[in-house]
């Protein structure tokens, strides 16, 4: 099937991927800073670079939008 579809104008906003990270999987110095949390949320660029770690999913989405990025969930 070779039908073209117009997805609309490119908004120019980069996609950032949000995924849960188990604190136990982080380096020791980062685990100490987690202050009792068992899960944090990582924001990654399309190239896979970790941009930030935050305490909850909602904050991850807010942070992405405040920085003109489009957040999407990764399972």
UniProtKB/TrEMBL annotation:
InterPro entries from the UniProt entry: DUF1150 (IPR009531)
Domain of life: Bacteria
Pfam families cross-referenced by the UniProt entry: DUF1150
Protein name, per record: DUF1150 family protein
Organism encoding this protein: Roseovarius litoreus
